[in-house]
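Cross-posted from the bioinformatics board.
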Amino acid sequence: MSVDTATVKKVASLARIAIDDAAAERLVPELNNILGWIEQLGEVDTSGVAPMTAVIPNTLRLRDDVVNADPLTGGGIRDAVLANAPQAEHGFFTVPKVIE
Amino acid sequence: MTDLTDLGIREIRDGVRDGSFSAREIAQAFSAAVARAKPLNAFLVETPAHAMAAADAADTARAAGETPKPLAGVPLGIKDLFCTKGVPATAASHILEGFTPQYESTITQKLWDAGAGMLGKLNMDQFAMGSSNETSAFGNVISPWRRNDGGNAPLAPGGSSGGSSAAVSARLCPGATGTDTGGSIRQPAAFTGISGIKPTYGRCSRWGVIAFASSLDQAGPMARDVRDCAIMLEAMSGFDPKDATSLDIPVPQWEAGLNANLAGKRVGVPREYRVENMPEEIEALWQQGIAWLKDAGAEIVEISLPHTKYALPAYYIIAPAEASSNLARYDGVRYGQRDLPDGANLQAMYAATRAAGFGEEVKRRILIGTYVLSAGFYDAYFTQASKVRTLIAGDFEAAWDSCDMLLTPTAPSAAFALGEKSADPLAMYLNDVFTVPSSLAGLPAMSVPGGVDKAGLPLGLQIIGKPLDEQGVLNAALAIEERAGFVARPAAWW
């Protein structure tokens, strides 16, 4: 597969990255070069091979069924959560208007 | 009196314990070295007060006759990927400028609990994406090393943990944290003549470490020798309920277990690691490494890892795919920079913020990741890469039938000059050819200095071990270290 300017712009919009025409054109050969190289994986016969899901076998644990089992990852830390917000008002993150 | 900054972790720990010097003297000496070394651009934030507070606590505890903590009096450099409470963290990206973590990463907390202090936050490739430290938004780290040709070309300290490697190598700190996704501890260690180990995936908690590719990222120590790495790794490792991939198993006493006698051990040499155009000096060093391990009592066996050539392309699908997902959180809402053009709606704000905040390499990888995960391509790229990853891990598993560990070069060349590869992303990616396969398989792997090339630059050898056999890796690395007698160090020009 190779990408063109329109594809690069579509992917950029999916990735939520603003991109102008000049940047899209510059990225076309760069991405094609990389994509062409990774395409060699197609040579490998993977029929009957399961995709890796965990690199070191491990069982998923459940957290203790306790409120605020870990205070750091529990609730009641609104000020800490909002401390780095570019804009916060009335105890909430603030974003541009999304409903007309 | 030796210069205190010439001391490594063990020497500092032991000297503070027996009163040869105070922890305060150590913290002062290293803080001063950090402050003098601005031309290296290794530190993004300096925190001498943190180092001093830990040192004073160590001195007070000693005066009170308390049992010394494992790292009491040892000041460390911390890669800027680790969140430390109240100290700005950017992952070397503009998008996180202004972010001050309200929490402490599990690993740094463990280091402070062990008595260590922080000299500062270390520069790195932006979001750990890079092999030369040229993708930092805050300028390149300059390697303290220079070629002996008198040209003084600024060299890459390796990446992504290039601030860490430069700082340890330049004697600005006795040890530093690094993180390794595809070789980001081992390659910079090799480029700067220091040691660094990436433990088994899951040994070190990833909680509070800014994520790049979650199935690969693993923290580890970078220090001047193997013993110092063992000491620091012991303090960093251990189960963390806050990280779902953390392994709930005891941490061995790696320092106490160090033993360079490899009698009865079989060391595999993978034939697929002979790449085209590999400099003769790398091949010669590899042969020398084989001779050293034989001398240490090991038996050498040639082995095959047939899917080696597919590791890099698989990595450059899996890592960007995970990165595109992990970095979706940087949108100008919760932390860091926000770019809000006049009249922009929410979507336009996201897009403008991310366009302005991310560097070129980060954007390139997010786009590749988004592309390979997009509808219609997911199976052809991501699923296929995940299957190839299974085959690569299977190659290693099969190798363990005939050997206990592997010996390879760490990188296909010595440090290159800044700017030499930055125009060609693919040429840069190929630098990680020897480190990526073991990352995909989650295995412990270490780089240890083996010698210098004809330009006087360090070259590293890599030991790759079985899952959870950090002891075997450290022991083989120690056997190399004892025989290599590597004493070269950069002359201070900064």
